[in-house]
Amino acid sequence: MIVDGEVEPCINGGTVALGAYFGVPVDGVVERLLGEQLADGGWNCGAERGSVRSSYHSTICVLDGLAVYERATGALDVSDALRWGEDYLLGRRLFRRLSTGEVVDPSFLLFSFPAQWHYDVLWGLDHLRGRQYHYDVAGDAHFEKSTQRYIHTPHKYHIRFNGKGQPNFRSPTTPMGWFDLARVRIHLHYRR
Predict the structure, then answer these.
(1) In the chain, where does DSSP find H-type helix?
(2) Tens digits of per-residue pLDDT, 114-129?
(3) What is the mean pLDDT of residues 14-39?
(4) 128: which of 33, 46, 64, 133 fits an S-S bond (Cβ 3.0–4.6 Å)?
């Protein structure tokens, strides 16, 4: 039985998603995550060591977990935490620094599978799509140039991140099913 989770929100987000999906009680972990949300709206696995800024990586893991939990049980009200965390991503246009508007990490514009803990824009867009947000991707020229080719054409490359966050590129001979599924879902949602 899961009691109150791990010290890292990204792990707890995944635990909540899996637990809620399979009907395992995870209310204690959800309560912990709600208590660990940072002042800027997101989460950070480094908060235990003093970090006061949220991380895209930790935030998307928690958001996905809370979204699955909300759909599956809704025992605890997580709607405010979800909106606040999604506002963290949206306020930064999904991949930019709030302070300068610069791209936080160029790897956010490369799509990984399985994502594990590594944030990328495709994951962010797919999360927002699942929550019925409409994000205006047309307002950011850098985003369009870097990512539209992935969203509108079959994706033939994927990245796997090792434990240290370093990418290992792979080039399969056929498009990856996850990318195609996410690409089509996002395309259909955002063209409305």
Answers:
(1) 9-21, 27-36, 56-72, 79-91, 121-130, 141-152, 177-190
(2) 677 889 888 898 898 8
(3) 95
(4) 133
Q: Give the whole-angstrom CA distance, residue 37 versus residue 166.
A: 27
Tokens of 113: 């599978």
pLDDT of residue 9: 96
Does residue 66 contact residue 21 with C-beta atoms inside 8 Å? no
**CB of 29 closer than 8 Å to CB of 75:** no
Q: What is the pLDDT of residues 143-182, one digit of tens each?
A: 555 555 555 544 444 455 555 555 444 544 444 566 667 7
Backbone dihedral angles phi then psi of residue 169, each to the nearest 5 degrees = -80, 145
Contact 15, 2 (CB under 8 A): yes
Secondary element (H or E) of residue 169 = strand 167-170
Which residue, 145, 113, 125, is CA-closest to 189?
125
Which residues lie across from 169 on neighbouring strands?
Answer: 159
Band (pLDDT 50/70/90 cuts) for residue 43 is: very high
- Phi, psi (rounded to 5 degrees) for 105: -150, 120
Closest to 130 measured CA to CA, from 33, 56, 64: 64
Query: Among 165, 125, 169, 116, which residue's Cα sits nearest to residue 144?
Result: 125
Tell me how long the chain is: 192
Tell me the pTM.
0.82
* Torsions phi, psi for 141 (to 5 deg): -60, -40
